[in-house]
Amino acid sequence: VAEELLVYEIDRLVVDFVLDAGDAFLRADRPRDAELAARQGLVLSPAHEECCQLLLRAASALEGGERLQATMRWLVGHVREATDGDDELSGDCWTLYRKLGGDPATQLAE
Question: Of the candidates 49, 48, 58, which has an alpha carbon nearest to the alpha carbon of residue 23?
Fold first, then answer.
């Protein structure tokens, strides 16, 4: 049990670092680096809401609409696959997707 707690704590610290780095990259106009940071966070925590949102913000900053939609499609599949269908993107991620310019008619969740 102690070993599991240690692994959990390490994962949490790494994800926190990834989020801080990703935000700093976006502020420095380095969206590719922010995208890479978000994807690394999603390796450790596949359905982590803040990592998903960071990835969406990075995709929007990179190339806008088409990149944003492709990223959202990837996220939906990634979360489903990594959690064996037990988890899906939060409503907040969908709201951000649409706020960033994602097609409101897109039904990627279904």
Answer: 58
- Cα separation of 110 and 108, whole Å? 6
What would the 3-class secondary structure string for 53-109 be? HHHHHHHHHHHCHHHHHHHHHHHHHHHHHHCCCCCCCCHHHHHHHHHCCCCCCCCCC
pTM of the model: 0.86
Instruction: Report the amino acid identity of residue 7.
Output: V
Rounded to 10 deg, the angle between the 49-63 and 91-99 helix axes is 10
Best CA proximity match to 22, nearest among 49, 41, 43 = 41
Per residue in 97-106, pLDDT (tens digit) is 999 988 766 6
The per-residue pLDDT for range 61-76, each reduced to its tens digit, is 998 778 899 999 999 9
Query: By the 8 A CB rule, do 71 and 51 touch?
Result: no
